[in-house]
Specification:
The protein is mostly helical and 284 residues long. It has eleven helices and five strands; from the N terminus they run αααααααββαβααβαβ. The protein has two domains: 50 residues, no CATH class; 214 residues, 2-Layer Sandwich (Muramoyl-pentapeptide Carboxypeptidase, domain 2). Helices cover 41% and strands 6% of the residues. Bound molecules: zinc ion. Zinc ion (ZN) binds next to loops.
Length: 284
């Protein structure tokens, strides 16, 4: 059952994008007061919700990168992997673009980024994500944005993850105190480069399908992990921490009960992103 009213209510608060308005409709309404509610059909809603539920499958209308770009994606991804192996997982979470390029120049085992790869990285970053179905905001407008290591803190027993000092770390400490030690940080700060690595990997595994990748992972620049949000899981629950099954765990139930679940990507959100009950939104 589609909660149409609820969905529409969200849309009014949402700076709606051209996705909801076909070009013809747009042309027809030019010069008139536009009400997006008039143009969202039940069929659109049904298709949209079906797509979000089946986020990890290709759907009609999905946008793919070109075959040429797919080849560049593979070489870029391999280079980023060599960088991660060289600097270690922890340090890689915080890497900025300039530092990454310098590393590639200084370490023969990484090898310098080619011009094609750098152009590809830039194109992906500045491509409007709404053209392939991701409607979230972009908290990092610049590809060169850096994370100041002094403003971060490394979290013990979290596979090298970091959090920002201040609201993010305080929220995490509260969660640990009130939910208990079963609650673990599964993903903290992710710099532009870390997000690139994860996103390109997802696009690679989706056979170049940008839409499919972005249904479960924010494109670089669009992730709130770069400015404070983090993911919480239950220790020992592994990959299932990143599935709806997490909502059945005692950790999730406690988090929810204590009011920590202030979700960035709610069920049936209108941002083109699947439901993410493990993602904790931090108010900055
Ligand atoms: Zn997250």
């Amino acid at each position: 059952m589609i909660k149409r009213r609820e969905f529409l209510k969200n849309i009014t608060a949402f700076s709606f994008s051209s996705y909801f308005i076909s070009n013809t409709v747009y042309a027809k309404t030019a010069g008139k007061i536009f009400n997006p509610k008039d143009f969202i059909s039940d069929k659109y809603l049904k298709d949209y919700i079906h797509k979000m539920k089946n986020f990890d499958r290709p759907h009609k209308g999905d946008v793919y990168i070109s075959i040429e770009d797919y080849k560049t994606l593979i070489s870029t991804l391999k280079r980023l992997k060599r960088i991660q192996n060289t600097v270690g997982h922890g340090h890689f979470y915080l890497l900025g673009l300039d530092e990454t390029i310098n590393l590639s120049k200084n370490y023969p085992r990484i090898g310098k980024f080619t011009k094609k790869e750098l152009d590809f990285i830039e194109n992906i970053f500045y491509k409007k994500s709404s053209t392939y179905g991701f409607y979230g905001n972009k908290p990092l407008p610049k590809i060169t944005s850096k994370i100041n290591k002094c403003s971060t803190i490394k979290i013990k027993h979290s596979y090298g993850n970091y959090l920002f000092k201040g609201p993010a770390f305080e929220t995490y400490l509260k969660i640990k105190k009130e939910v208990g030690n079963k609650a673990v940080l599964t993903s903290g700060i992710r710099s532009v480069i870390k997000q690139f690595y994860l996103f390109l990997n997802k696009v690679y595994r989706s056979n170049g399908n940008l839409s499919m990748a972005s249904r479960s992972l924010a494109p670089p620049g669009y992730s709130y992990h770069a400015i404070g949000d983090f993911d919480i899981g239950q220790s020992g629950f592994g990959e299932a921490n990143f599935s709806v099954r997490f909502t059945n765990t005692p950790v999730y139930k406690k988090l929810n009960h204590l009011g920590f679940i202030n979700l960035r990507y709610t069920q049936n959100n209108n941002l083109g992103v699947r439901f993410e009950p493990w993602h904790v939104k931090v108010k900055i």
